[in-house]
Write the structure tokens for this entry.
Amino acid sequence: MTRELAHLSDEALVLLAARSEQTALGELYDRYGRPAYGLALRVLRDESLAEDAVQEAFLALWRTASRFVPERGKASTWILTLVHRRAVDLVRREERRRADALDDAHVPADSVGGADDEAWLRLQRERVQAALRQLPDQQREALELAYYGGFTQSELAERLGQPLGTIKTRMFTGLARLRVLLGDPGMETAWTSTS
Amino acid sequence: MDLHELTAAYALDALDAHEAREYEAHLSHCERCRDELSTLAEPATALAWGAEPATPPAALRGRIIEAAAAERANVVPLRRQRLFRATSAAAAVAACAAVGLGLWANSLHRSLHAARSAAASDARAVEILADPAARHIPVTGVHGMVAVDATGQGALMLKQLPAAPPGKTYEAWVIAPGGSPKPAGMFQGGGTMTVVRLQKAVPKGSTVAATMERAGGVDAPTEVPVFSARA
Ligand SMILES: [Zn+2]
């Protein structure tokens, strides 16, 4: 399959998708299908549900591409946001989430896809993982259970036996700290030198 | 419930449906929460990249495209499908002009793959091509266009231009009205898209053309143009 739109930016592809260009949707899928499916699988822990989440997210993109505002954020972020929302909706509906939401070790690593894309995805992943490791345990736990486990804040409070206010604080502080860690060039040096 | 306190949970998709609706309604008239959300959404979505990528079943791609086509089959004028091939370079430029250079450049750096394309082309050329104020003129001979910005700086964007054979090069020319061809840069072609910055200003009414010449280039064209445009 030739990727004749491979030279275009993600945002240009979204604009083409808004004009009903199916090849643009296909190119976006080729770029983000793997991280999207990996994320859905992490939340849902079920291959068929993960496929549903990815399909619904890309169709949501197709329907709402004309409302995408590039100034507000990157297209890749938007796509994964759509995938995450669908996955969380499904996991809540299916009651499928597991107690082991903190562990993603069962998802097999694979190396299909372009080597360049692969290297980039791996670096991204290592960078996020490294930042998460630097968070205090309770903040990391709150973020991981909420984001990867699909738990609502109220469910988290119950599960962790903490007042709702404490959970809110952990999520807020955790995200604020994660933002600093991800933006810190000193840390970037640290992870590139160790990988 | 204090809605101001829900920003982090909303960014993480950790509100139930009812809370999420309430928060969204609140967001439309609370600037403080909008600011906070724009700060917290970034690290929240960064978590998406923290999950191990996995290859979806091969059939999923086809199912998505098929479902997408079924939803919007009537919206696409029939002749558009045919026109798209010829005008996709134009569409590409129009799209990137609409998006603006900042995001274009950002996205180019999104992956190593794309970063290499950025290194291979000329950032200034991309800027001219993406300039909404530039004039965009299709070239004849190959699929592509020349863009000339308000100051007369020009760039070429050529779709699927075959690579120049060994020992040969493409050479661009700018021919001002009543003038002789002035060399405006060399390029090799090949790949999906060739982007070239013209090294001579392009006065209005000029012809922009390219010929195949011996490697190293020549001072005056020796071949008929591979493509040309009246800019
Ligand atoms: Zn507020």
Q: What stands out?
A: The longest strand of chain B covers residues 168-175. The longest helix of chain B spans residues 78-99. The helical segments of chain B are 7-11, 17-27, 31-46, 59-72, 78-99, 101-108, 112-120, 123-130.
